Amino acid sequence: MRPAADEERxxxxxxxxxxxxxxxxxxxxxxxxxxxxxxxxxxxxxFLWRGSPASIVFESWSEPVPLRRWRDTDCWYAEVPxxxxxxxxxxxxxxxxxxxxxxxxxxxxxDRSVAGTPDLPAQPHWPAFGAGGDVVxxxxxxxxxxxxxxxxxxxxxxxxxxxxxxxxxxxxDGDDWLYLHPAMTAFDSAVAAGEMPPVTLVFLPxxxxxxxxxxxxxLWEAVRDELLPLVAESGVPADPGRLVVxxxxxxxxxxxxxxxxxxDLVSRVACQSASFWWTPGATxxxxxxGGPAGGTVAAxxxxxxxxxxxxxxxxxxxxxxxxxPHCETVEALTxxxxxTVRVSRSPSGHDRVGWRQALxxxxxxxxx
Length: 368
Hints:
Elements: H1 4-13, H2 23-28, E1 33-36, E2 43-50, E3 55-58, E4 65-66, E5 68-69, E6 75-82, E7 87-94, E8 97-99, E9 107-108, E10 112-116, E11 142-147, E12 154-162, E13 167-172, H3 174-179, H4 183-192, E14 199-204, H5 209-212, H6 218-233, E15 239-248, H7 250-261, E16 268-272, H8 295-301, E17 311-317, H9 324-336, E18 340-346, H10 352-366
Parallel strand pairs: 13-14, 13-15, 15-16, 16-17, 17-18
Antiparallel strand pairs: 1-2, 2-6, 3-4, 3-7, 5-6, 7-8, 7-10, 9-10, 11-12, 12-14
C-alpha cells in the first residue's frame, strides 16, 4: 500500500481536482480516467465508485479487481493497467448487484459500461447508454412466434427492415443484439449513412448455445425449412436469396459450418471470434482450447471442399491470444479452398463491444 499522499498526487495526475471524496472531486469525476504507463502505449485506468465496497468485473479480459477505500471517505478506487488498443465491457459488483458505472457516460444495455483506451477510434452508429435512469432500447416491431419441429420448443424471433428491407441478415445470439448492443439502431444508422444497402435483420435467439451451435445440421435444417419461410410469410420486405449469417464465438463456428455443409443456403458469412477450437466433447475438457488448431472445422477444410462461392469475413480480438492460432488456421484453409476471404483484428478480447463495429463492416463487405 502506498502512502496516502502519493495516492492523492496520483488522483491529480488523472486530472481530478480537490481532495478525493470532496464535492469538488466528485463534481469533476468521470471514469475511466487515463494516464500513460509506458513507451509501448500502455495506460493506467482509474475507476471510481462512491459509497460502499465494490469490485470491477471485466468481460473476458481479466480477473475481478477489488476497489479500495481512500482514507475514511466515500471514495473507492482502483488503478488498472491496460495494454494499448483495448475496448472492454465491465460492470461494478456491489454486494449482490451488478451495475453500470454511474460515472461513465459510455454504457451498453441496462447494466454494463464500456472502457476504451484513448488510442482507439470511435465506434459510429452504436448509441452509448450511460448509467442512471431506465434504459429503454428500441425493438423491432415484427415478432414471429417460431414453434420449431426440428429444434423443439417455441422462441420469439424479431425482424426489422433497415432502410426498408433487403437481403436477410441472420444475427445469431439475437437477444444479445437486441438487449445488450442495439443492432437495430446501428444498422439503421449505417444504412442511412450509405455504408451498406438496406437489409432485413432477423434476430435469432438461442435456447441452448452449446447444443445448437455445435457442428450439427439440425439448426440449419430448421432455418432453411422453417424459419426463412416464416420470415417470407411475415409481410416484411426481405430477400432470403441473399442471406448473410453473422455469428460470434460458438455462433461464428456454426455460421462457417453452415457454409460448408449447406452451401446452397449460406454463401455469405460475417464471423467474429469463432470457436474454431471446437471438437466433439471439447467443452467438457479442463482446457477446451488445448486441442488441435482449428478443431473440427479445420479437419473438414483439409478435405478440400470447393468454396469458390463463399464470401466470408473473419475477425478476432487482438487480445485473444489463445484464440488466434485456431482462427489463423481456419482463415488460411478457407482461403486455400477458394473462398473470398477478408481478415481483420479488433482491439478487444472475447467481447461483443469489440465485435459490434466489425459486424457492421463485415456484413456490408459480405454483401459485396
